[in-house]
Amino acid sequence: MHSEYLLFNIIVISGPFFLSFDRKVAFYKKWPAVFLAILPAFFIFLCWDALVTGRHWWFNPAFTLDFKIFGLPPGEFLFFITVPYSALLVWEVLAAYFRNKQLSRSNLFRPIVSFYLFLE
Questions:
Q1: Structural contact between residues 89 and 16, judged by C-beta atoms closer than 8 angstroms
Q2: CB 112 within 8 A of CB 90
Q3: For residue 65, which phi and psi values (nearest 5 degrees)?
Q4: Are 2 and 62 contacting, i.e. CB atoms less than 8 angstroms apart?
Q5: In terms of DSSP H, where are the helices of the chain?
Q6: Among residues of the chain, what percentage have pLDDT more than 70?
Q7: What is the pLDDT of residue 6?
Q8: Residue 73, SS3?
Q9: In the chain, domain spans
């Protein structure tokens, strides 16, 4: 299926998009700031991706649309929007629903860093 990569992005964003309207989180109110935060990384990674695609990795044409922008399928552009958006939403959901000392932002960050350091 040529639209599989595009479908992946639609699945990734669909849950977070609808959860953005949750009353307690109200993530939709933060959309301007969210997109401003995503934009710099979006452009940096897209430029880098366009430079190395075809040399270090490629996109299987069986799973991507034939249409390309700077040699990248549309799904790749969406990936750099949908994944950061979803990650930021998860962060906001945790902050909204678990506002106690055991799950403060700094206490959430420590186990994640420890996990990745353990993997090294």
A1: yes
A2: no
A3: -70, 155
A4: yes
A5: 4-19, 31-52, 74-97, 105-119
A6: 82
A7: 84
A8: coil
A9: 4-119
Q: State which amino acid sits at residue 19.
A: L
Longest dimension (CA), the chain: 50
At 32, is the secondary structure helix, strand, or coil?
helix
Specify the pLDDT at position 75: 85
**Which residues partner with 69 through β-bridges?**
72
Asked whether the beta carbons of 51 and 116 are under 8 A apart, the reply is: no
> Residue 69, SS3?
strand
Helix (H, G, I), strand (E, B) or coil at 53: strand
Mean pLDDT over the full length of the chain: 83
Rounded-to-integer distance, Cα 46 and Cα 32, Å: 21
pLDDT at 41: 92
Structure tokens given for 71: 């040699």
Residues 7-66 have pLDDT tens digits of 888 999 998 999 999 998 999 999 999 999 999 999 999 999 888 888 878 787 787 878
